[in-house]
Amino acid sequence: MASSTRREWMGLGGWLLVAFAAAAIGGRASVNAAAFYARLVRPAWAPPGWLFGPVWTVLYLMMAIAAWLVWRERGRAGARTALSLWVVQLAANALWSWLFFAWRLGALALGEVVLLWVLVALTLVAFWRIRPLAGMLLLPYLLWVGFATALTFSVWRLNPGLLG
């Protein structure tokens, strides 16, 4: 295998590792999420708890591939702003689980998920400018975070005792 091909595959592995490390950090806060989610009063349009794991797995995979495409196109130095936005939105993504599930701070979780949506939108635009396919890969994520924002608001309002 040529060294440039090996470098590209190792790069993909690195972006996957970073994305799924963030998922694991958020996941630590969600250890008891299923039981807590089941106790919450939810709107009729709320998805079942089992759906979140598969959806997030696909989204993290798409996030990693998008970052990899941008990195391949411009390198770390050439895409510094776009890739920095990607890392910041990834950290914000992991933080939401802690705010909502571990610390049960509904209002802060809502504010944070709104911030996350903005960060994802900025990352999508930055990625699109470098490699349109990378931006497109973030579109389902942006839509899901928009849905998560509405769900966070609704669940917070329906559960003032549990999500102070």
Question: Could you characterize the architecture of this molecule?
Answer:
With 164 residues, the chain is mostly helical. It has one domain (3-158): Ferritin (Up-down Bundle). The chain is built from 6 helices and no strands. It has helices at 3-29, 33-39, 52-78, 80-102, 106-130, 132-158. Helix 1 (3-29) packs parallel to helix 4 (80-102), helix 3 (52-78) packs antiparallel against helix 4 and helix 5 packs antiparallel against helix 6. The longest helix has 27 residues, at 3-29. The radius of gyration is 17 Å and the shape is elongated. The model has no long low-confidence stretch (mean pLDDT 96).
> What is the domain tally?
1
Q: Main sheet?
A: none
SSE sequence, one letter per element: HHHHHH
Mean pLDDT across residues: 96
Query: CATH architecture, please?
Result: Up-down Bundle
Helix percentage range: over 70%
Backbone structural class: mainly alpha
Reconstruct the topology from this structure:
Elements lengths: L2 H27 L3 H7 L12 H27 L1 H23 L3 H25 L1 H27 L6
What is this entry, summarized?
With 164 residues, the protein is mostly helical. It has 6 helices and no strands.
Q: Can you tag this structure with a few keywords?
A:
mainly alpha; elongated; 83% helix; Ferritin; 164 residues
